[in-house]
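User: I'm curious whether this sequence folds into something compact or stays loose and floppy. Could you predict its structure so I can see for myself?
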Amino acid sequence: MTDPDTVATALARLADGDFPSREAPTRVVAEAETAMGSVDSAAAFVDAGGEASLRRAVRAAEQDGNGSLVERGRDVLAALAAFRDAAERTERPVEAPETSSTPLAQRSSREGA
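Assistant: Here's the prediction. I'll summarize afterward.
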């Protein structure tokens, strides 16, 4: 008969979205590292739910005591955060500077407007 504690742990991991296989975190981190090759592939990775999978992979690696995989995963998470911060800085609208000149579409007072 299966140990109830083992079953409870396995069910909790499934409910949390943790990996049942020890190979999966390694695969997810490797895919995440590959996705960092360009901003477009990193965005596609995030859009496909990869960031959440990567966070779960890092958690699983922590539980396994796999420090090098944890570090690699955290490096990718840091890169994603840096991409997000850069995108937020560049997406701010730029306000047009105030000018005192007459718009080209209007006649000036010298033209008898």
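Summary: Residues 100 and 108 are 12 Å apart (CA to CA). The chain has a mean pLDDT of 80.
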